[in-house]
Amino acid sequence: MSVDLTTRYLGLTLGCPIVAAASPLTATVENAQRLEEAGAGAIVLPSLFEEQIEGEALDMFDAPAGLLDAPPFGSATLCSELDDYNTGPDFYLRKVESIKRSVSIPVIASLNGAATGDWVRFAALMQGAGADAIEVNIFVVPVSPHVSGHDVEQRYLNVVRAVRKQITIPLAIKIGPFFSALPHFAQGVFEAGADGLVAFNRYLAPDIDLEHLSVAPSIHLSTRSELAQTLRWIGILRDQTDRSLAALTGIHEAEDVLKALAVGADVVMTCSALLQGGIGRLTVMRNGVRDWLEMHGYDSVDQFRGCISRRASGEADAFVRGNYTKAVASYLQPPT
């Protein structure tokens, strides 16, 4: 028996539910081809940042007079550092074109922003360059006591609406888990025009350099322990929407992929596992998923998906307070 790993994500047909998430690994034609050979269902290109686009002269937009009178959004230093990461806006479009020509799997371009602005118009250029879909990573850090949770959510939704107006291809929104009423917010994201939700982004927090008494950038790759939060919310959201759901963060083994699919993820995105173990790690995960499904009598990913969502599991409370009380009680039990 051959297990069918085909899945649908953002209206696109993927040959495998494992997607290479945005990272330096997805930045070149060579790596894109290697990821396709390894069995990736799709690849998400590294993000182009709002600061980079707003920092450009925006000549490519044929901007009307007066549009560029305001100072650039990001500092010159920040834009320079970001360009070292992905070489800047103009090169990014050429990258989309070249990678799209080099592979047959879907290529998802990525934007990272925090507020509406002229940068959202770049989504249309990405579509023109051949991107099959756009993923927007919205990262807002509220620092004012006068900004409410509602204000923050509206800022996200304004970005979704603005990008949606620019494109006709599918749109996914990558978010973090820090919303007081995530299902309500997710519904708003879909109503604003998103075709899918990527859960969850890992918000990188700064560290402190005690030697120089300064704030230092910090990055730590994910661990498998971070998957639990993603599983909870995908399992809750799956029964409330027919839009696409992508699981992200803590995906390192085939077992992690299977857990995410079981709670209802359409695709499972991995980044840290590939950065640590190399592109070949994706093949190991893909084969592990196929072998497990075959061993347990499943004909396809679709047959397996969502079998342990909150409603389907028959243990709805396990996704909310029930899990907390059981976990505490089990921990407090004396060892036998």
Task: Provide structural commentary.
By secondary structure, the protein is α/β, with parallel strands linked by helices. It has a single domain (7-332), classed as TIM Barrel (Alpha-Beta Barrel), CATH 3.20.20.70. Helix content is 40%, strand content 16%. The chain contains 13 helices and 12 strands. The protein has helices at residues 29-38, 50-55, 76-86, 89-102, 122-128, 149-166, 182-191, 227-238, 254-263, 272-277, 280-295, 301-304, 321-332; strands at 7-9, 12-14, 18-20, 42-49, 107-113, 133-138, 171-175, 196-199, 207-209, 214-216, 244-248, 267-270. Strands 3-4-5-6-7-8-11-12 form an 8-stranded parallel barrel, surrounded by 8 helices. A two-stranded antiparallel sheet has the order 1-2. A two-stranded antiparallel sheet has the order 9-10. Strand 11 (244-248), helix 9 (254-263) and strand 12 (267-270) form a beta-alpha-beta unit.
Structure at a glance:
By secondary structure, the chain is of the alpha/beta class. It has 13 helices and 12 strands.
Name the strands of the widest sheet in spatial order. 3-4-5-6-7-8-11-12
Number of helices: 13
Shape: globular
CATH architecture descriptor text: Alpha-Beta Barrel
User: Uncertain regions: pLDDT < 50 for 5+ in a row?
Assistant: 57-79
The top level CATH class name: Alpha Beta
Succession of helices and strands? EEEHEHHHEHEHEHEEEHEHEHHHH
Calculate the mean pLDDT score and round it.
Answer: 87
Q: Termini separation (Å)?
A: 44 Å
Indicate the structural class: alpha/beta
Percent helix, as a range, is 40-55%
